[in-house]
Design goal:
By secondary structure, the chain is an alpha/beta fold. Helix content is 39%, strand content 15%. The longest helix is centred in the last third of the chain and has 18 residues. The two termini are 23 Å apart.
Length: 344
């Protein structure tokens, strides 16, 4: 397994991480992802560690904390062999302070995650979303306190817009507080909006990209084809899950899958392996979070590493998945492209 530097830090992370959204299945939304119990999770951790995949990503809201609890049980006795990343700030409770990135909520959220995970430190703690109601100084000051207390080693964010992230980094620089070294962001062959602003920002500011939903909410899992019904096991069959899925016109999905099928014939690799390998060659990407309901799916995802698509194959996938950027990015690219080169 290849290891990569996470942003501007000295922290090395594996090219693939295992997401634990499939652990628990504590409600209808997460049941559409999976319902992995402790025994099955322990086996998946075994397979990951044998393959050199040592980073496991969770969040306090995954099945209402159950995913963190199951991960904690699955790694018991081998905490020093692996890395844990988790997230907080989404609503977890009914009270007015059971949400957000206030000092009150973050301190409680981190302590609760530590208890569920059965550990005294978190390697990478990420804010699950931007809290516009809490001053950025309060957020970063609190995260700095948690780093100095030894509860968190590195901080990151998730689902931030460009100005959210840049203002946060500038605030950290102003006060000498820890900087976000990771941005967990949605990025896939059927969702390339990340490239327009967040990728150039990541490269400029040395923020490593932690990719979530690299198969486009299951659309690139190899089971969706033009003229065929959706498979029964896809999360896209769940209305509550589908309503939260990243929007993608179905014709665009088919166009991308057609290109993936063509590359699959050339390489002998599967559609999801090719989609993951494409991401691993993108600028700023530090690690790609993969999910698995069982060992078969996990082994399939592990097959995305230790080989590379050719430049011609990458170009074929780029062309099939390209969409027109929103303003001002189409203007920067098409009208003033000479002074706004694409990220490399």
């Amino acid at each position: 397994m290849e290891y990569r530097q996470l942003g501007g830090s000295g922290f090395m992370v594996p090219a693939l991480s295992l997401g634990t959204g499939t652990f628990g299945g504590g409600n209808e939304f997460f049941k559409s992802w999976g319902s992995t119990d402790v025994a099955a999770a322990t086996h998946l951790v075994d397979v990951c560690l044998d393959a050199g995949l040592t980073m496991f990503d969770s969040a306090d809201v995954y099945s209402g904390g159950l995913a963190e609890e199951i991960l904690g049980q699955a790694i018991k006795g081998r905490r020093n062999q692996l890395l844990i990343s988790t997230k907080g700030s989404f609503r977890l409770g009914t009270g007015p302070n059971d949400i957000g990135s206030s000092r009150f909520h973050l301190q409680q959220a981190v302590d609760a995650s530590l208890r569920r995970l059965g550990t005294d430190y978190i390697d990478l703690y990420q804010l699950h979303g931007f809290d516009a109601r809490t001053p950025i100084e309060e957020v970063l000051g609190t995260l700095g306190d948690l780093v100095r207390a030894g509860k968190i080693r590195y901080i990151g964010c998730s689902n931030f817009s460009g100005w959210h992230l840049m203002k946060s980094l500038a605030t950290s620089d102003r006060y000498g507080w820890p900087r976000y070294v990771a941005h967990q962001a949605y990025y896939s062959l059927v969702g390339r909006d990340y490239e327009w602003e967040l990728m150039p920002l990541a490269l400029d500011q040395k923020v490593g990209t932690v990719v979530w939903s690299p198969l486009g909410w299951g659309r690139l899992g190899g089971k969706i084809r033009r003229g065929q019904p959706l498979p029964e096991t896809t999360r896209l069959q769940s209305k509550i899950s589908n309503d939260k899925a990243p929007p993608v016109p179905i014709e665009h999905v088919y166009k991308v899958v057609d290109a993936l099928d063509a590359v699959a014939k050339e390489t002998g690799k599967t559609v999801p392996q090719i989609a993951l390998n494409w991401l691993l060659q993108r600028p700023s990407v530090a690690t790609v979070i993969v999910g698995a309901r069982n060992e078969e799916q996990l082994q399939q995802n592990l097959g995305a590493v230790d080989w590379k698509l050719t430049a011609e194959q990458v170009a074929k996938l780029d062309a099939a998945s390209e969409t027109t950027p929103a303003y001002p990015y189409w203007h920067q690219r098409n009208v003033y492209g000479e002074r706004n080169p694409p990220p490399v």
